[in-house]
Please model this.
Amino acid sequence: MPLPIRPRRNRQSPAIRSLVCETRLSPENFIYPLFIQEGSENTPIDSMPGCCRWCLADLVKEAAEAHALGVPAVVLFPRIPDELKTPMAEESANDEGLVPRAIRALKEALPTLTVMTDVALDPYNSDGHDGIVAPDGRILNDETVEVLVEQALCHARAGADIVAPSDMMDGRVEALRDGLDAHGFTEVAILAYTAKYASAYYGPFRGALDSAPKSGDKKTYQMDPANVREALRECAEDEAEGADMLMVKPAGPYLDVIAALRANTTLPIAAYQVSGEYLMIKAGAAGGWIDETKVMMESLLGIRRAGADMILTYFAKTAAALLRESCGGGR
Ligand code: PBG
Model:
C-alpha cells in the first residue's frame, strides 16, 4: 500500500514509544491524602479499602514511607470525636487539636515533607457542613470566612506549608492571605479548591470521617457538575485574591475543567482524584473485572494529560512504588 504517513512507526517499540511519550507520571506529581484520628490504634476504612485512619505515630511512619518513595507532600483529614463538634466549630482553631499536633509531629520527623491541610469546617461542625449553618438552614458565608481564617492561622502556627481551603465560601482566599500575612506567615501558600463540584463521588470520604451533612446538601456552595464557565469565573477570582495554586475536584469526571483552567491561568493546577474515583477502581478490581494497577496508572495519566501539575490521590504511595520499580511504567 503506498502510504507515506504511518503513525504506527512511532509506536513500534518500547524505546520509540518512550521517546514520543507526551505525558509522564512521577512520584513527584503526587500529594498523599491521609486520614487521622486520636488514640494509638489505626482503623481501616470500610468504604475505602486499603485506606486507614491513622493514629499520629503511624501517620508519621506512613508519610515517611511515601516520602522515601519520592512523594513530596501529604494533606491531612481529621476524624474529630463527636463531643468536640459544635455549631461554630471552635475545635477547628484549637492549637492542641488533632491537626496541629499531627503537623508538628510530621514536620519534626520529616522536615523535607510538605504538609498541607484542608481548611473547612465539616469535620468540626455539628451540622456536617463546610460552613456555619444559620437556624433557618442557610450557610453563612462571611461568618464562616472569619472562622476559616482562625483555622488557617492555627495550622500555620503548627508549621503547615500549604493551606487548602475546600469550603467554597466566597472571598476566603483573600481573607486567608490577609490573615496569614498580618501574622507574619507570608511564606505559607494557599492551594485554593477553585472548582469543587457538589459531587456524589465524595460519598466514601464522608463515611471515613462521619462528616456527611446532617441536613440538606452542599449545592449552595459547591459547584453544579453541569458548569464549566463558572469554574473559569472561580479561577479568575481565586487568582486575583492571591491563590498560589488552584484545584479541580473531582478529577476523572472533570478532565475538561482541568483543561479549561490550564488554558486560562499560569498558576499550577492540582486535581483531586476523590474517594469515589478510588473506590470504583478498587471495587472493579476486587470483583476481578479490571486490572487495578493498570487502571490506576491510566486514571492518573489521564489527569496529568488534561493539564494537572499535581494529583491528590489515595494511590500516591502505591503508584509511587510502582513508578520506582518500573522507571516510567513499562511502555
Ligand atoms: C470537605 C472535603 C470533602 C473532601 C475533601 N474535603 C468532602 C466534601 O466536600 O463533602 C472529599 C474528598 C474525597 O472524596 O476523597 N471539606
